[in-house]
Amino acid sequence: MTKVSWQVASVTDPGIKRTENQDNMFVSSDNRLLVVADGMGGMKGGSKASKLAILAVEKLWNERQPETVDANTIQNWLVEAVSNANQDVFDAAAADPAVKDMGTTIVAAIHCPDGSLHIAHVGDSRAYLIRDGKTVVLTQDHSVVMEMVLQGRMSEEQLRNSPFRHYLTRCVGHKAKVEIDKTPAEMKPGDWLILSSDGLSTVVLDENIGEIVATCETPKDACDKLLKATLDGGAPDNVTMIVVRYAAAEGGSNSGGQGSDKEVAESAK
Fold first, then answer.
1. E-strand spans in 78-191?
2. Backbone φ/ψ region at 41: left (φ over 0), alpha (ψ -120 to 50), beta
3. Which residues contact 261 (CB under 8 A, 6 or more apart)?
4. What is the span of the domain harbouring residue 169?
């Protein structure tokens, strides 16, 4: 298995039609853990829910990191982190009638120098793999319209234009327990990873994401171009992205190495 290194950049923006940004994100200091959360539940509730979820994951990371490349250990850690996030949002909603309906999506990923990638997600925030200019959606949206597509009752084209595409079947914080999807992947030198809120997928087609990224040299460049495409497309919602570019680790050593271009592009976080 080829050892990899990576560079990371991120961007968040309220979009054209929203005055408040209810998205939140987290990138660990070593760029190994990446998290995006998209809140819902009104002006007060949405931003609070996504922030609580991010803080729960960050807290566990600071207390106890999975210092291994063992798949089961990392997947169990991610499930625990998202479960903690769910409990924190659920408890806060129960304690405050003003935000009783709040919830959030979440997509969290941990990558390792051996090229393994582990993802946990709830809701319709996504993880994309871009390989050779082609886009693969690694996660499955937990939404009413996606369920209809999987059942053959709606086409992908109809999904894109449905006024019900934001109706979720699963999110963090609405129930005391939540089912968490786990997705493994193998990343190769030259691959790109994107974690994003649905502010990106609502506007930019999957295939166009790959085409845009194929023109980029750095994660920051990809963030800038994808954000521009989203804003040019009307950006009706907040949009948040964490973009990773993978390369071969120098000398192919076992240490791999976590790199960063240190050009994190953030606006209106």
1. 103-111, 116-122, 126-131, 134-137, 181-186
2. left
3. 7, 8, 9, 218, 219, 220
4. 4-252
Asked if residues 78 and 108 have their Cβ atoms less than 8 Å apart, the reply is yes
> How many of the other CB atoms lie within 10 Å of CB of 154?
18
The pTM of the full predicted model, rounded to 2 decimals, is 0.90
258 belongs to a structural domain: no
Token pair of 264, please?
């994190």
Instruction: Identify which of 135, 132, 247 has the alpha carbon closest to the alpha carbon of residue 196.
Output: 135
Neighbours of 26 (CB within 10 A): 18
> pLDDT (tens digit, 9 = 90+) per residue, 70-129?
999 999 999 999 999 999 999 999 999 999 999 999 999 999 999 999 999 999 999 999
* In-domain check, residue 269: no
Instruction: Please report whether residue 262 resides in a domain.
Output: no
* Cα–Cα distances in angstroms (integers) from residue 253 to residues 4, 140, 146, in the given order: 9, 34, 42
Residue 207 tokens read as 């295939």
Question: Tell me, what amino acid is at 136?
Answer: V
Output the domain CATH number for residue 194: 3.60.40.10
CA angle 128, 133, 139 (to 5 degrees): 15
- Note whether residue 268 is domain-resident: no
Q: How many structural domains comprise the chain?
A: 1
Alpha-carbon distance values, 169 to 37, 132, 145, 147, 265 (Å): 16, 33, 9, 9, 32
pLDDT tens-digit readout, 139-192: 999 986 666 655 666 656 655 665 556 779 999 999 999 999 999 999 999 999
- Can you tell me the distance from the alpha carbon of 159 to that of 138, in angstroms, rounded to the nearest whole number? 18
